[in-house]
Task: inverse folding
């Protein structure tokens, strides 16, 4: 369960600086507080339901696992890899919340940069990421393609994004005008404007996801969830079986 820093790149360096030891301790305390928040339980339920879609034991990768906040929501897991940029967050993940309810057969924790680190092809049935992509890290075609390589045929990529209509996104006058103009613009003009509204993948809605997904991935389910901070999109993309 010791982290591996061999794949640490520029994004991971910045994240590791931000997510220092005091931050990690505060985040772990927040794990306890969130047990009383309905939207947190909704994320746990969603994750468990995605696991159960397989019907058989699975190998899982958590991208940006932090303190292991969601480990206890996994079901039918043979092996779990928790991946994060911060050594201190991974230290906390060795003792995640509800550790007694974590049922994964084996757990390994890996430190690195998700923009540069490589896992073996077809290593996982499920890759999931909650509260990281299209929030702290841009979600674009390049990242989708990386994850698709790591998935087995028929595997799933479950992730959350911050929706551009989230109340946490600053509601400036230019944004308000752009959102209202978008449906009326021709495709050539609307594409560039939409890219600006999602900040190149720092937010994501259905249109952005469909434009960035490679041919090997298709959206299996997509729903919205309002938490105490954001309006999230919950998406599951499935890899083709052949």
Result:
């Amino acid at each position: 369960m010791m982290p591996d820093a061999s794949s640490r790149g520029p994004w991971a360096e910045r994240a590791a600086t931000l997510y220092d030891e005091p931050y990690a301790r505060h985040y772990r305390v927040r794990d306890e507080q969130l047990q009383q928040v309905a939207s947190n339980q909704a994320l746990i339920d969603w994750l468990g339901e995605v696991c159960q879609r397989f019907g058989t034991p699975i190998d899982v990768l958590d991208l940006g696992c932090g303190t292991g906040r969601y480990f206890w929501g996994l079901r039918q897991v043979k092996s779990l890899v928790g991946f994060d940029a911060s050594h201190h967050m991974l230290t906390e993940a060795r003792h995640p919340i509800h550790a007694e309810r974590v049922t994964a057969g084996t757990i390994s924790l890996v430190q690195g940069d998700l923009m540069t680190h490589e896992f073996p092809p077809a290593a996982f049935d499920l890759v999931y990421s909650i509260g990281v992509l299209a929030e702290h890290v841009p979600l674009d075609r390049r990242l989708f393609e990386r994850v698709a390589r790591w998935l087995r045929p028929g595997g799933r990529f479950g992730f959350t994004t911050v929706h551009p209509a989230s109340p946490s996104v600053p509601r400036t006058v230019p944004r308000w005008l752009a959102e209202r103009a978008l449906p009326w613009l021709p495709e050539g003009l609307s594409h560039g404007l939409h890219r600006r509204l999602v900040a190149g993948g720092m937010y994501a809605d259905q249109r952005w996801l469909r434009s960035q997904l490679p041919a090997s991935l298709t959206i299996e389910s997509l729903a919205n969830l309002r938490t105490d901070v954001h309006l999230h999109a919950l998406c599951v993309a499935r890899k083709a079986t052949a």
About this structure: Residues 38-52 form the longest helix (15 residues). The longest strand covers residues 151-162.
